[in-house]
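[Solved] Which block belongs to which protein?

Original post:
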Amino acid sequence: MRKMLFLATTMLAATLYSASAYADQKEVTVWSWFVQSTMQKSIDAFEKAHPDVKVNYTYYNYSPEYITALKAAAASGSLPDVIGLQPGSLTQQYRENLEAVNERAAKQWGDKWAEKIFPVNRKQMLMGNPKGDQNYYIIPQESQVLCIWYNRKIFEKLNLSPPKTYADLKAAAKALTDGGYIPMFQGAADGWQNENVFLMLANQFSAGIVDKAQAGETPWTAPELVAAMKAWKGLFDDGIFQQGALGAHAYPTGAQLFAQGKVGMMALGSWWMQESKFPPPLSEFVQNMDGFDFFYLPPVKDGNAASPPVGGIDIGYGLTKNGGKNPQAWTFLAELTNGVGLQEALNDLNDLPAFDGNSPKGDITDHVKDMSARFMADLPKAENQRFASPAVAEALDNALAGVAAGSIEPEAALAAVQAATEKALAAK
């Protein structure tokens, strides 16, 4: 009887302890478009280091699901604790819903913490802030460099080399099309991918000109930007992009086709290396990334140089006003961007680090190491990828879509972007 009473008492104590521990466990809610499998590894590492915290992650495809979800949650005051952000326009769109993280970051990493972040990223962290506002509303997790990826096994099969001129690019696109492949997949229904390609083009004509235009220092109707917009239209007219590009999405459609070996080229960035770390079954092209390599967009005008590296922050995170009330939310954000969570993402080759001094560990092939080293060498000299104003980014998206569809001429489209820029600058 005593034994049974002892067992019952022990079981009750264990149950009460378990219930108490569960009740004491804090929760953090996170939304992002960050790869679900990699995020889970980051969460597992965080929860191992912080067993009293439970992280609930909701994944969205970036466009349009994530953008739509953020808008709805902000309108209803129900944003999660931590949200994935891009610098500039997306961060500014939700700045009123975000906590400034300067003091928390200084306490976490020291007063000179921002100096550990690559210069182009640090610049982007303040993009679009009202004049005099030196607060940081985004902490970058990863950096990226934009480029044109190509399937080198298909190129070898068709006796193609990475294009060095626009004529080479057109010839490669024709050979790919004739061979039954999609030449260069463009998700032209996605504003972000259109912006990326346009930035590659614009920086060929004048490095940094888009930054000057959005700052009001150069008109969007400048000859160099008009030439870039005409070159953008040429990518459709010359058969570089696939038929039906205007209705296509880069993710998941384009990425899946590219990974399966049905696409010759695609404008993406350094994050494509992560494909080699996804769970099986992997295609012969993705396995160890042996089937892929990258180049920069060749000059569309004779005498110009190829596109310079363009990039900066791939993804960052913001602490919402709701998250500011939850002490564990910052702890998770800090570990995700420059701690145990970041290390897991780098090990998965999700992208390049944003904080200097971090690097991937584990099983990585020599080919991937070489590509990663090339990206890291180019990152410090990368031109800015981001837009400070949501309205300007939207106006450019509309201009690119309209010019590609042939419904508006380049000069008129860029005049609309100029008007949006002037309005945005006047409101600051």
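(Second protein starts here: sequence line, then its structure tokens.)
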Amino acid sequence: MTALGVGILGLGNVGAGTVRLLGERRERIEARLGVAPTIRRILVRDRERERAVEVAPELLTTDIDEVLGDPEIAIVVELMGGVEPARSYILAALRAGKHVVTANKAVLAERGAEIFAEAARVGRAVVFEGSVAGGIPLLRSLREGLASDRITGLCGIVNGTSNYILDAMTRTGAGFADALAGAQAAGYAEADPSLDVGGGDAAHKLALLALVAFGVQVDPGTIATEGISHVTAFDIRAAAELGFVIKSLAIGQRDEHGVGLRVHPTLVPRDHVLAGVQGAFNAVLVQSDALGPSLYYGRGAGMMPTAVAVVSDILEVARDILAGLYSRPGPSGHVPSTTSKPVSLRPLAEVVCAHYLRFRAPHVPGVLGRVAACLGRHGVSIRRMAQETPSADGSAAMVMLTEPVADGSLAAALVEAALPVTRLRLLAE
């Protein structure tokens, strides 16, 4: 059978899983594809470091030119993470005539326009299924399974660390700090978890989902993003009493007014399909005109789940190489000249949804009346209100649910009220 050379950049967890799958599934891949993807070089920082998978020493190199200069390597698999040097290596690989498979959400979200433009110029592929939801075939479903449909919205859990923490808080009653420590001990959170719990990781993934689902290029820095560190055990309990579960959601919507993207903790009705997503699992609910709602659920990270997506991308590119399809459609299924149009997002201030408000009312006459008056002046109606037992100083935590209102109107009301308020959005009904 014909051999097809593969070069791998990075041999961390996902790289090790990719090497393992290509070895363990070699016969099955050959039977289905008629070609044997063969690893020829693996770029590493340290050749002597202990690995999670056994690799022949002669495959390891610290010199990128040994990968890019090998004429037998047709596909370069970038699994280094981060923006640099990954961006430079991807561009160099394309210019050397290689196709690229990557699971690097950061480099594509931040420098994707440059990378996809170069891929279109040289007629090479860039595929990235593993960059968004681990082993879930989400991007392929959006790009191919829904190619005949028009996607109007998506909403989901795309960061397993945040979901693990919020799920632990829900199940055990723990506070955020204790739940985070538990996630770190279990290996689900990094020593520096800020990218996950701050929402940045989910914003990167949402930018790529918007690219594939809506065909638009978005700077992830412009996506309205809120983390979960301000969610307290009290909020979890209050939400449960009101019939909700708190989840960190990535939400994208497209209508006649444009595209809106946001990441934030959200009150989800207890009977909603996303409310039952536990632990570090991911799930994305997609809405399209013809099909309606469809759900994509599974392990969103980890060595082997992500390696499944990476190897599937390698096989997809290999099929195109064998078929002579050296120029591919762009990432959203459009031709390269019309793919990833830069857009300005709809302002968060225009988003209309109900809100959860939590604040501590001091033991001062007229406080609640003043808050209610501020809300009323900005068109905010209260649907429901609850109060905990007052503390020794007479103050009490107050919880309000509003009727749906424009985000900007509520923000203006809270500024006028001049009280520290924790605000969480409700999933649109």
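Accepted answer:
You had them paired correctly. Confirming on the second one: Confidence is low (pLDDT under 50) at residues 334-339.
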